[in-house]
Structure formats: structure tokens, C-alpha cells
Amino acid sequence: MAPPTSALLPSAPAVTGQLPATAPAIPGIFPNMFPLASAQLGAIPVMPVQAMTQQATRHARRVYVGGLPPSANEQSVATYFNHVMSAIGGNTAGPGDAVVNVYINHEKKFAFVEMRSVEEASNAMALDGIIFEGTQVKVRRPTDYNPSLAATLGPSQPNPNLNLAAVGLSPGSTGGLEGPDRIFVGGLPYYFTEAQIRELLESFGPLRGFNLVKDKETGNSKGYAFCVYSDVSVTDIACAALNGIKMGDKTLTVRRASQGTLQPKPEQESILMHAQQQIALQRLMLQPGGPPTKVLCLTNVVSADELKDDEDYEDIVEDMRTECGKFGNLVSLVIPRPRPDGEPTPGVGKVFLEYTDVEGSSRAQQGLNGRKFGGNPVVAVFYSENKFSEGDYEG
Description:
The protein is α+β, with helices and mostly antiparallel strands. The protein has 12 helices and 18 strands. It has helices at 5-8, 38-41, 49-61, 74-87, 118-124, 147-150, 194-201, 235-242, 269-285, 310-324, 358-368, 385-389, and strands at 62-66, 99-105, 110-115, 131-132, 135-136, 138-140, 183-186, 207-214, 221-229, 246-247, 250-251, 253-256, 295-299, 330-334, 351-355, 372-373, 376-377, 379-383. It has a 4-stranded antiparallel beta sheet. Strands 8-9-7-12 form a 4-stranded antiparallel beta sheet, with helices on one face. The longest helix has 17 residues, at 269-285. It starts with a helix and ends in a 6-residue tail after the last helix. 27% of the residues are buried.
């Protein structure tokens, strides 16, 4: 039926229930996509604006995540990607979570993760190769992604200023810190420097890529790193030799980032034995307090008040001599006491142990550092032999 003549006249008054002469702007939709006259639209059911926008942008707001572990579920994937998107600074649509929906195909171990904005989906593309529940996953565009249409909806590339180091990735690191030979190094003592960790890892060969993950705000180590060797044939050797060794009060977890268990090949066994000998020497060089010496300094063991009484002092000395003598031949033991007149005494609260050789002091450092004493963790560091011989206990 033809519309009323009044509806076709420019000067006709607006009729209640009809759309206005100018169609309202719909975010993400161009006006020329609706060539029909506004009066004709009045007879057509119109989808809510938000639903139309979501439908039109869905292909550009979804990312494909492949290689998921069997334990993955919708909630764990959503929680994980919300966390890492926030950590890298990828949330650009305001406060709240970036993920609005997750669909998982458990049989084929992949998921579609729907983000709330096109820009956040593009930022998520920088997460390719990230570790999810111990498994390296792929992050790709879905097959229905339309590049030309997506370009009109928002950025199609990740923001170059994302803090990928916060999650163990680096921008443009293809061939560097990505791929099946990428190694995860966990359980690192927080006081280890990048130089010390690299020195440890490079005892097996030069590195093609290395990244110590640090806290975004403080810049302090988070206790784990990623690396790739230039010669990928040493990957399993390094992992098997380093995994499980103790560093101070920590135990290292070293494995390929894409798998949880490691089995060196039979032909690698002899190389592995040699590597473990190398690492034993390397561990000594990486102990807190610098290179090992014959003298060990303990803190968090005794307090000034415990050292004032003569009998208590003698008991403490005897107990320390017995316990610390288990690690090697103890030449001397010094526990500075507070002065009766109340004047400050250098070294009060510390225990100094001198062994006949570095092997004894190193065993003591390994055995005592981190051990609880009176509810406090003992800190054992190597001390300068020259300062100790000069009676300088303040260092």
C-alpha cells in the first residue's frame, strides 16, 4: 500500500509512531548502508542499536586460541585472558574485563575468545605464543575475519606500546623468544640479576633471546624468565641439567615452554653429565654475596638481647659450632656481643663462620640459607676473607 500523501510532503507534520525524517546515527554503521526512506523503515522491525553493532563487529572482536591443554574450560580461559590483557595494558575500552564470551571446542582443543572491542581484540593478537597452564598457545584471527571491513571498525594491529614483557613476551620476537624451543625458567631467586641468570644459562651456549619478567610498577624480578638458545640442539640438555637444582631457598623449574615434561634422548646422556658438572660450578658463582669464600656470614640467627648473658652466650656459641661444623672443618666462629656500656658494636646480630676451604663454606651456605631459626629465615652470604681477618664485621 502506498504511504499517505502527507508522509511524502516536506512540510507535513511528524506523525506519531513514525521514524523522524533523519535516521539516527548508529555507531559502527554508515548511513549509506540504509538507502530506504525513513517512512518505509517504519514498517520494518528494527534490531536494537547495540545488537546491530555487536553483530557487525563480532568477526573483528573474536580471536582464535589454539593448542589449549585438556584442563582448559570457558571460565579459566576468560579469567586468564582478562588478567593478561590487563597486565600488558591492552584494555582500551575502559574499566572492566576485556573478555565478554568464550566458546571452547574440547575435542580439537581450541577456543574463540570474544573481546568487547575491536581494538582489544587486535591487542590480544600480540599474545601469540603465551603460556597458558604450562602450555604455549596460538592466538590467531578466526576464519571469518574480514580484513577490509575490520579496517573500517578499528585498529587491526596491536598497540606498539603494550607491555608484553610483563607476560614473558616481546614485540616482534619471531625467531627470538617464540617457537617450540622457547624455554621457561621458573623459581629464580628474586635477588638474581639478569647478568647472573644469563651467565647460568649461557654455560650451555649463546642465547638467541632472553627475557627476565619484571613487575611493571617496581621493576623487580618476578622470579621467572624465558630464553631461546642459538643452537636449539642444546635445549633439552640445558632443561634437564637445570631443572630441579636448588638456588638459595628456591628450586628451579626449567622446561620447554610448550610442554611440561622433558626426556633427554639417549645420545644426550653423556653431554648431560658434563653439563651437570658445569652447572655445579656455576651454582657456586651465583650464590648471594658474590663469589664463594671460606667465610660465611649469617643473619636472622641471634639478637643482641640473647648475647648479653654470659651463660646464654656460651650455649649459643657451642650450639652454632656443633651445627655448622656438620658442613665442613670449622676453623673459627665469631659472634660479636654488645658492649656493657651500651656503645654500638659492629656486627652484633651476625654470626661469622670460617671454614678451611670453600667447599665447606659452600655446603654451609646451601644448608643454612633459608632455614628457619626461631621462626625467622636465616640469610647466609659469603663474606670477605680480608675483612674477616682484619676484624671488620661491619660489612
